[in-house]
From TrEMBL:
Annotated RagB/SusD domain residues: 394-537
Name listed for the protein in its UniProt record: RagB/SusD family nutrient uptake outer membrane protein
Stored Gene3D superfamilies: 1.25.40.390
Subcellular location: Cell outer membrane
Record has Signal as a keyword: yes
SUPFAM superfamilies, alphabetized: TPR-like (SSF48452)
Gene Ontology annotations for the cellular component aspect, listed alphabetically: cell outer membrane
Record keywords: Cell outer membrane, Membrane, Signal
Primary localization: membrane
Similarity comment: family membership: Belongs to the SusD family.
Domain (SusD-like N-terminal): residue spans on this chain: 83-221
Amino acid sequence: MKNILKYLGLPVLLVGLLWSCDDLDVPITTQLTPDVFPQNSAQYIQTAGPVYVAFRGEYSFAWWFTQSLSTDESIMPARGGNWFDNQNYSMLHYHDWTPDNGWISSLWDWSSKVIGTSNQAISILDKTMPEGSDKTTMISELKTMRAISYFMLMDSYGNVPLDTVYGDFTAHAKSDRKDVFIFIEKELKKALPNLNPLSGITTYGRPNKQTANALLAKLYLNADVYTGSQRYNDCIAACDAVINSGLYMIEPRSTYLQMFYPTNGPQMKEFIFAVPYDASAVTVGYNGQMYHARYDVPRSERAKFGISFTPSAPRSTLPEFYAYFNDVNDIRNNQWLTGLQFMNDGVTPVTVTTTKKGYDQFYTGSDGSAAYTYQVNLTPDIILRQNPALFDCGNDEIAWNMGYRNIKFYPDATSTSRNQNNDVPFLRYSDVILMKAEAILRGGNETLGQSAVSLVNMVRSNRTTSAAWGGVTLEELYQERSREFAQEAWHRNDMIRFGKYEGQWGFKTNSETYRRTFPIPTNAMVLNPALTQNTGYN
């Protein structure tokens, strides 16, 4: 969604002035203080804007990489040395990451910055806004954003410091994961009555009442992981609140893929909370971009998708994950590029002209420099044929065509850069429906006349023309979630809850259970000496 950013954004200068680099608390070091700014409704919105800009910052980078590349959903091997990046990607695959892993550090830094920026905005608005519904709503929205960020931090690292007072620069020790869980729950429940009950353009990109309910459902569904206590009936009640709002519906089969196109936005019937992206936006001090096509589209298919740059195409899925897409009548199959490739007419082959040696670097014939033209054929297996120790498939056409590619977030031909206009959902209505089904299967009570299988069939009837299921098991539900939420950064969360994160896939054999949480990054421990390292990483 493109113009929506004007409702969330603010002048670039102001973003830079309100940004902090390291701490959860963000000191004001310029003349922009509550005495002089903000003083009117437009300036109140500008004060809240940095929170949403900050949240967009690493949502499609550090959050996505850590939540997806550490699972069987995605893999980013090196190809001729490209994308090795100091083992940042291979560590996520092998589950042998250290506190110095770049993406794990970025995830901590980003989440902390969103929390710190939220603390700042809440403090300023609390001092400057006149009492009334506008103030309570705006501050409740910001507290919900802070709760979302704490959810991500707690889900990823376990015990984390709780710091909600702007201006408190003391070092904070980690709080127990149960206490962080309780904090998030209380924040969301307290915000709920004051959040906007509407959906659509008026609330798009900001949390509304059902954002809080959907996040509560996610919190309760994972309560056994986070606290050791089951909260399945609470999950069902939160899901029912979203369902009873009548604001959302499952996108039909005919528009499922369009839900992730560059033209998506508040018109999508499933989006409860989404992160808006604008390919033309330039923001100082943040990443704030969405580069899926850069990582996922084979470099040979630039012309097919009409994109203005040559993609790097290092990212693919693994056969273990693709095996879940086993229904020929399922529209979700169409998010994948597999096998022989054709242009969009479905007839003209996608071809590449290279040399015999360029096609296969291990070719030993005397005519290795002879021209060679072939039709691109994406193969399912990843083979580290150049250097297994360096996670390297090779630097030839065979290597670059290894792995099926996901283009759910469809390449944006309108963009003049690698950035895309596709908004990325964080919470969708189909997730609420499947969360309720799972909570019932795990022992919760049926409500609203809905059983686990009827709920799953609500989703499936909008995805496939195959017959409805007569029953559903937890394993079948897990596979349905894998199909439905591929590439949406929920797979790590699902794998842990279903007890699959210690399994084997690709080249990974590590089954250490302490890796269900990431280590506290080295740079975070340097900045905050009160932090202690997570168990297993000492």
